[in-house]
Amino acid sequence: MQQWLIKLSPITSAKFVNFTASPSLTARVLNVVLFLLMTWAVIFSSIPLVLSTYLLLLIVKALSSQGLVQPTSHGHWYVHCDGSVRFDALEYGEYSEDIESEKGHLQRVDTSASPFKITFQLQSGRSVTIWRDSCDDEQYRQLSLVLRQWEMKQGANAPC
Question: Where would you find the membrane-spanning parts of this chain (predicted)?
């Protein structure tokens, strides 16, 4: 088979994915767009001035504290189809994680918005979001496949 055809073939099976997630431009742009839309809606509405000021302060506070859109969980990630997850933090200055290293197991996976992002929750309660542009496209597809395999395997005692 031609080498270029192999590279274009979809990924059909993967037991694990090992990738590095970096800050997402999509998440930043969505934060700015949502901020501008909400600000525009408050300013041009017929809400009294005092209430408008309060709402604008709440919007700014939400944007500055956590953002309106959940950012990417940066770092080195290893996800296996049996549900085991390993995380090692990267140093990104203001974006560095509070946790340096973590091992855990998947509890819940949300792939409903997989064209844009994948979210999964660990048994420790930590929610992890990986935006499509925060890692290599091939690694993102492998992650999506591994997480879908884990979802299908839930309740069955089948190997991955």
Answer: 32-60
In contact, 74 and 21? CB cutoff 8 Å? yes
109 has which bridge partners?
Answer: 120
Assess if residue 7 is contained within a domain. Answer: no
Which pLDDT tens digit goes with each residue over 120-130? 999 998 899 99
| Structure tokens, 7 | 């590279």
Residue with tokens 């506070």: 61
- Domain residues for the domain of 35 are 28-65
- Do 74 and 149 fall into the same domain? yes
Number of domains in the chain: 2
CB 121 within 8 A of CB 127: yes
Whether 8 is in a domain gets the answer no
How far is residue 94 CA from its own chain's centroid? 18
Cβ neighbours of 87 (radius 10 Å): 22
CB neighbours of 158 closer than 8 A, spacing ≥ 6?
Answer: none
Q: What is the pTM of this model?
A: 0.76
